[in-house]
Design goal:
Helices cover about 40% and strands about 15% of the residues. By secondary structure, it is an alpha/beta fold. Helix 8 (about 205-215) packs across helix 9. Residues about 5-15 and about 370-375 have low confidence and may be disordered.
């Protein structure tokens, strides 16, 4: 069980219902989590919202500043520091320790239900109707993961498991025990969780056990949840978890995608899809209820794909104490991306523009007195040697 520092919950007031919302993060995602909280406060005005922010040590000061900015009669931020040893779980940069914090929600949140949200999201619609929905006896509600099925599987994109390329269907069947021809795989970006039922069935303890027994899962927390739930979830409207960036990958402006391929060489195989997948992409792009800035579509990171909803992210960021720091981070990462892009498109030119190379070239041209009479010849000779086209 996680060790937490949990303040007392704010009292319920007025006639509006109390709903409980949660997110989980470490220091790297603390500021985007603040923007998510601001978006919930701005859109869910028909309920009293208690927003639990489960976080790794080291961000308490930031969250106290956020709490001072957002707390009101209808919205309360409750920071919950999560500690404890989780060295037996797979952790890396893409999937940090904080992804496992959601498994501790039944122990931390003193309620029978909670809405969980990933921190790379903004909410555009009141969460009250989601919180009050009938789960029909299922432990959770979620959206089917169309990015895994209609996007990856149907275009032949494999997953990488323990160094091997495996078809999506084979991975789900052989590793997760989930037959996609009979049961659906859900995305854990947004979850309506029946905490009471999960406590009774020890759902989250079983998820953690599966993660420990199967190190190196492709998407550790999500794979474990799908293994345990086995398709027994209530499906949400796809607009509650909108991967808005994908529309431009299928329907690029001007017929050409901007920037490098995001999908390991499979980007060129993406064609304008017919039927249900086309309808889903259109809903995600033009009527998202929750925007999921998944994969390489984060507004605060330079070089990522841009969406029509980046402006809304920055508008919510302006209501937090993190706007200047987020902008500074965007500028820094954009400069780094620009340098990488120069190498990507023209590595020789990028190499020659580096200061130490420029100094070396000047030294080679002007090192001997007689060569000062023919610097252009010496430079041409040096460039030919560097590019392999000369002696």
């Amino acid at each position: 069980m996680a060790e937490t520092s949990l303040p007392a919950a704010a009292p319920t007031g007025g006639e509006k219902p109390r709903i409980h919302v949660a997110c989980c993060f470490d220091a790297r995602m603390a500021m985007p989590a603040g923007v998510l909280a601001a978006s919930v406060a701005a859109t869910t005005t028909d309920a009293h919202v208690t927003f639990y922010m489960l976080h790794a040590p080291g961000v308490s000061a930031q969250l106290q500043a956020l709490k001072a900015a957002l707390d009101s009669g209808d919205f309360t931020v409750i920071p919950c520091e999560v500690s404890g040893d989780r060295s037996d779980l797979t952790v890396n940069r893409q999937y940090p320790e904080a992804i496992y914090y959601r498994f501790f929600l039944p122990d931390i949140v003193p309620a029978d239900r909670v809405i969980y949200l990933d921190t790379d999201m903004i909410v555009r619609r009141s969460l009250r109707e989601l919180y009050e929905m009938d789960l029909g006896g299922a432990p959770l509600a979620a959206t089917k993961d169309y990015a895994l099925t209609s996007h990856m599987r149907d275009h032949g994109m494999p997953v990488v498991f323990r160094g091997a390329f495996i078809p999506v269907d084979d991975y789900c069947r052989d590793v997760l025990g989930l037959d996609l021809s009979q049961k659906d795989y859900f995305n854990t970006g947004i979850l309506v969780m029946d905490l009471k039922l999960m406590r009774e069935q020890q759902t989250m303890e079983r998820c953690l056990a599966f993660c420990r027994e199967n190190p190196g899962l492709v998407m550790s927390d999500q794979d474990a949840a799908n293994h345990v739930v086995q398709g027994n979830f209530r499906q949400l409207d796809v607009r509650w978890n909108s991967f808005t960036y994908l529309y431009a990958e299928y329907f690029p402006e001007g017929g050409k995608r901007k920037g490098p391929d995001l999908f390991g060489g499979y980007g060129d195989s993406l064609q304008a899809p017919p039927g249900q997948w086309r309808d889903i992409l259109t809903q995600w792009a033009f009527d998202p209820w929750v925007v999921h800035f998944a994969f390489q579509s984060k507004p605060w990171v330079g070089g990522h794909r841009r969406t029509a909803y980046d402006g809304e992210f920055w508008a919510h960021a302006a209501r937090t104490p993190f706007l200047k720091e987020l902008r500074r981070g965007l500028m820094t990462s954009t400069m780094r991306y620009g340098a990488w892009l120069a190498w990507y498109h023209n590595p020789v030119r990028a190499y020659l523009r580096q200061p130490h190379v420029k100094r070396a070239v000047r030294g080679a041209v002007c090192s001997v007195g007689v060569d000062r009479l023919r610097p252009r010849y010496r430079l041409k000779q040096l460039l030919g040697w560097m590019t392999g086209r000369g002696a």
